[in-house]
Amino acid sequence: MEHLQASLFDQGDEIRQAPLTGLARTELSDGAWIEELPGWLGGADALFARLRTEVPWRAERRRMYERTVDVPRLLCFYGAGEPLPHPALTAAREALSAHYQAELGEPFVTAGLCLYRDGRDSVAWHGDRSGNPRRGSRGPDPEGRGAREDTLVAILSLGEPRDLLLRPRGGGRTALRRPLGHGDLLIMGGSCQRTWEHAVPKAGGARGARISVQFRPRGVR
Ligand SMILES: O=C(O)CCC(=O)C(=O)O
Ligand SMILES: [Fe+2]
């Protein structure tokens, strides 16, 4: 089957990557862009089910003003050199690193996994502008490379689609809306983390769970 680039067999679940040559680019403003390949990963629903049960998901709490509140989604971060929870994710990271070698000049090394349990889970407007955790300190660097340099963040979406919104930093113009799930791939590139923001807003009604896997280079988070 020549349209399939890679194939992994794991307990009967076949996970297939479509060729990354199918990625389509949309230029945004100020040197930001996105590339998209809907349905990049075949077998994504089986991968979703495995990750949902096998990843050691953690709830985080964050100080907001005078209160400490639950972050409304579950997280698991895999730093550089840490084995990923499924070989399909390692294969995805390697394929993305190879494809963007010329543009990025370095590999994707970390994987941030987020679980949106239902429509009440969300992430507020932000750019990936912080850094990786420092040894012996709590939390990421206050400022990472995404705050100063062009970079790439690749998002693989599994499970039920949720909208990823993108808008120029500080709002103003109407946001772009991309429903992402079931193996869809979206890459944010150029100045996207500095000059644009993204969010996954709360969704009304009963919504199924979604897992987002973000691959990033060193020093971006
Ligand atoms: O759910 C998503 O795909 C976006 C997650 C995100 O932007 C982040 O964790 O930085
Ligand atoms: Fe983000």
Briefly, what is this?
With 221 residues, this protein is mainly beta. It is built from 4 helices and 15 strands. It is globular.
Describe the protein in words.
The protein is mainly β. An 8-stranded antiparallel sheet has the order 3-4-13-10-15-8-7-6. It has a 4-stranded antiparallel sheet with strand order 9-14-11-12. A 3-stranded antiparallel sheet has the order 1-2-5. The protein has 4 helices and 15 strands. The model is unreliable at 1-6 (pLDDT under 50). Helices cover 14% and strands 41% of the residues. The structure holds 2-oxoglutaric acid and fe (ii) ion. Fe (ii) ion (FE2) binds next to loops. Residues 112, 114, 123, 128, 155, 164, 198, 200, 212, 214 line the site of 2-oxoglutaric acid. One of its GO terms (molecular function) is dioxygenase activity. Residues 107-219 form the Fe2OG dioxygenase domain. Keywords: Dioxygenase, Oxidoreductase. Residues 138-147 have a biased composition (Basic and acidic residues).
**Ends apart, CA distance between termini:** 37 Å
Overall pLDDT, averaged?
91
Sheet of most strands: 8 strands, antiparallel
- Mass-distribution shape: globular
- Number of helical segments with 4 or more residues: 4
Assign the CATH superfamily.
Answer: Alpha-ketoglutarate-dependent dioxygenase AlkB-like
Rg for CA atoms: 17 Å
Q: What structural category characterises the helix and strand content? A: mainly beta
Number of domains: 1
CATH class: Mainly Beta
Pfam families: 2OG-FeII_Oxy_2
Domain Fe2OG dioxygenase: 107-219
Keywords: Dioxygenase, Oxidoreductase
Protein name: Alpha-ketoglutarate-dependent dioxygenase AlkB
